[in-house]
Design brief:
With 247 residues, this protein is of the alpha/beta class. The chain has 8 helices and 14 strands. Bound molecules: beta-D-glucopyranose (BGC). Belongs to the ROK (NagC/XylR) family.
Length: 247
Amino acid sequence: MKTALGIDIGGSGIKGAVVDLESGKLLTERLRLPTPAQAKPEAVAEVVADLVRALRWSGVIGCGFPAVVHHGIALTAANVHKNWIGTDVNRLLSEATGCPTFTLNDADAAGIAEMRFGVGKENSRGVVIMLTLGTGIGSAIFTDGYLVPNTEFGHLKIRGKDAEWRASDAARKRKKLTWKKYAKRLQEYLNEMENLFWPDLFIIGGGLSKQADKFLPLLSLRTRIVPAQLQNLAGIIGAALYAGGMI
Ligand code: BGC
């Protein structure tokens, strides 16, 4: 059986589980440890090492990280500590854990899992855009199942502001928006996205996908839009697939 440990580093939690790469099923519980305050690189690496020890894992690790990750190096830091910029995340985490670790953008990881084992499985033809709505907005774009990595469409400017500042789940909570008001903001963003990319399908993932029934019916788009299926496991499963060379 081909397996890898998948890890999803987020603003409030660092989650991980061992994944069967053929079926996408978890072989251990999903373990969650709190992200350390400030989330500086060394402190996060220690928590990742704790998680690896707690799961008694030795082997390949895949890690989803909420920034542009170019060949293992973090190049942006929208919602994480600025010290990450320029950090060789693969090296940092490989040294901390003693296991070969391969890092990619968190939304790319979630998209990979959703395309392989989730809603994208039967819908991979053409252009598919996965958007994760959480602290920020993450994006992953696939053409006929192939990922174009590190798209950062949460930072598309809408009314002069980053889209994630207006339409992420964090924005909804910060502004205490009703679902109707939130859907209006999301609609404006998705209209812009569909006019630029003409996708066949939008997949909505991230923390807010659990409540998709509250806002998806309020949207009126040209493009078909569906909630993600794997929910909070997508990032873990996709990171494991990436590390295991399954993409
Ligand atoms: C980051 C992306 C990330 C997204 C979701 C954005 O602020 O720029 O890299 O994928 O948040 O975590």
